[in-house]
Amino acid sequence: xxxxxxxxxxxxxxxxxxxxxxxxxxxxxxxxxxxxxxxxxxxxxxxxxxxxxxxxxxxxxxxxxxxxxxxxxxxxxxxxxxxxxxxxxxxxxxxxxxxxxxxxxxxxxxxxxxxxxxxxxxxxxxxxxxxxxxxxxxxxxxxxxxxxxxxxxxxxxxxxxxxxxxxxxxxxxxxxxxxxxxxxxxxxxxxxxxxxxxxxxxxxxxxxxxxxxxxxxxxxxxxxxxxxxxxxxxxxxxxxxxxxxxxxxxxxxxxxxxxxxxxxxxxxxxxxxxxxxxxxxxxxxxxxxxxxxxxxxxxxxxxxxxxxxxxxxxxxxxx
Length: 319
Prior knowledge:
The chain has about 325 residues and is mainly β. Helices cover about 5% and strands about 50% of the residues. It has helices at about 265-270, 305-315; strands spanning about 15-20, 35-45, 50-55, 60-70, 75, 85, 95-105, 110-115, 120-125, 135, 145-150, 160-165, 175-180, 185-195, 205-210, 215, 220-230, 235-245, 250-255, 275-285, 290-295, 300-305.
């Protein structure tokens, strides 16, 4: 893709992934109403890109908004939230929406988000054109977060990663997978990946959650995820990656012991929620990958890497 968002590795960088020099690419006040814009999802669309963005307004109400870009870096985001029409249900009540992901499956773009319905659960919707949006039944009972769909079916069934949680700032959490024949009824819940022992990989010892939509590589499904540790200064969110089996995505082949990206830049260390790197989307172009992540629950940022180097890093720095 000629307009793939990309920057070459800086000459002085020894890391497997590196930050965009243009970070934050979306600032906290980039819409007329926003207090912050972060934890958002991006996909190729037409000759450019479309996205679904988490925007907390100046009343700090959480909702999701559509945006468009020709190059994946410079964005025009709506000043009004997405309005959903009934999809496979008439029940589209929602107290809030946040942390969306977007996945192309077969003939449409599916959107998942943390949906407020008697507590946080996984909301599902879809669109064909990013103009009209349809909301479906919630996937699970409260409480749940970080719903991430796979872009392909497995034995004719949709598959989604999630993290069962509680109604607060969940101080625990493992990644599960669930399956559905129709994107309405979900079951066969299986544990995919648990938090790491503190002594082996402390940055992901408290909770973990699926981040970007997995994409298929020669090694298996590559998924970026976030891991959390509680420190004397509060929670700290970093980004790791895992490779899941191509045919059985509930099986983890490798996962990172060392994080790929931890909060270090000023815009990751300071914000509404300090010390946060939270991946929500990944674009791939042959061997290149561009990851979109929320920084300090305040802005949208990007990081880059080469797929083969990331896979090698996962294998050689694996739990």
